[in-house]
Design brief:
Keywords: Cytoplasm, Transferase. Its EC number is 2.7.7.87. Belongs to the SUA5 family. The structure is a single chain. This protein has 178 residues and is an alpha/beta fold. 24% of the residues lie in helices and 20% in strands. It has a single domain, classed as DHBP synthase, CATH 3.90.870.10. A hairpin with a 4-residue loop joins strand 1 and strand 2.
């Protein structure tokens, strides 16, 4: 990986908030155990803490401490079409992650950047779209700096042709929510 990618991992491990291209769209990211960083993301996005935020991971082992039914994680594999699954959250998971729900959204991806960051940080990544709530997601560094008033710790952009949010499926009920 290049210098910017290594720097992104370092900033995340130090509790920073970064914008990265995910397997779907440009996202705002931090480590899920860093409450101050999660609060910063919510504040920057002007997002209600009731909505919850998903976790991205390169493998299920990084998600076992966040869910009640870790055995259900075995059903999740990277999908051709990115899919976020809702699972019952472990009681220790912050309400900043779950929002008003008793579930946590998780997505396994084989995206090389996410795999690298998860490995370097030894953690899943908290991820939400890089936009102010109710507005379209953005992917240029200039627009990100303008929208978030240069309060992100780092911005990593790549030319990707994704631009579409993942589908969301409740793994307990099979219900497709998006």
């Amino acid at each position: 990986m290049n210098f910017k990618t290594r720097l992104t991992a370092k900033i995340l491990t130090m509790g920073g908030v970064v914008s990265i291209p995910t397997d779907t769209i440009q996202g705002l990211t931090c480590l899920p155990k860093c409450q101050q960083s999660i609060q910063k993301i919510l504040r920057l996005k002007r997002r209600s803490p009731e909505k919850g935020i998903i976790l991205l991971a390169s493998d299920t082992d990084l998600l076992t401490s966040f869910v009640q039914d870790a055995d259900l994680l075995e059903k999740i594999q990277p999908q051709r079409y990115p899919t976020t699954y809702l699972l019952k959250a472990n009681n220790a998971v912050s309400s900043l992650i779950t929002g008003k729900f008793d579930t946590v959204g998780v997505r396994i991806t084989d995206d090389p950047l996410i795999v690298y960051l998860c490995k370097k940080c030894n953690s899943a990544l908290l991820s939400t779209s890089a936009n102010i709530s109710g507005k379209q997601a953005v992917d240029s560094a200039l627009k990100l700096n303008i929208d978030f008033q240069q309060q992100l710790d780092f911005i990593l952009t790549q030319n990707k042709d994704n631009g579409q949010a993942s589908r969301i499926i409740n793994l307990h009920t099979g219900e497709r929510l998006r």
